Amino acid sequence: MTFAREQLRKCFPSIRFTAEQETKPLVFRNPAFFSNQLAVFFTDADEQEVISQLKEMEKSAGRCPSDKLDEKICLDIDLLVFDRRVLKPDDLKRAYVEKGLEELK
Question: Could you tell me the pTM of the whole model?
């Protein structure tokens, strides 16, 4: 998680993070918990540029395309909202996301 925060701070200096939250996997059979954290930042970059930067961070952390099939996720950075437009509405309903959004207010 430290690597992700450092990389995100480099690209988005205005970023603010919530506390980390441990959650059970939703679809994996592996019972290992996930560490989750929300953040908010402002940027002049467009949506595709931000998504590309996030994917590059995941790749730098060692993530491979086959990782989900292998139930191995070393780093997963999701862009839930961009420019006030919800990109992942189902994710916004998750308890840890709702809690994190409250923390960011």
Answer: 0.83
Q: 33 with 22: CB under 8 angstroms?
A: yes
- What is the total residue count of the chain? 105
> What's the whole-number average pLDDT of the chain?
89
Residue 1 structure tokens: 């998680």
Quick count: other Cβ atoms within 10 Å of Cβ 36?
19
C-beta of residue 63 within 8 angstroms of C-beta of residue 55: no
User: The CATH number of 2-104 is which of 3.30.70.560, 3.30.1300.10, 3.90.180.10, 3.30.300.20?
Assistant: 3.30.70.560
pLDDT at 69: 62
Match 């989900």 to its residue by tokens: 68
Judged against a pLDDT cut of 60, whether residue 26 lies above it is answered with yes
Q: What letter represents residue 23's amino acid? A: T
When pLDDT is averaged across residues 10-16 and rounded to a whole number, the result is 97
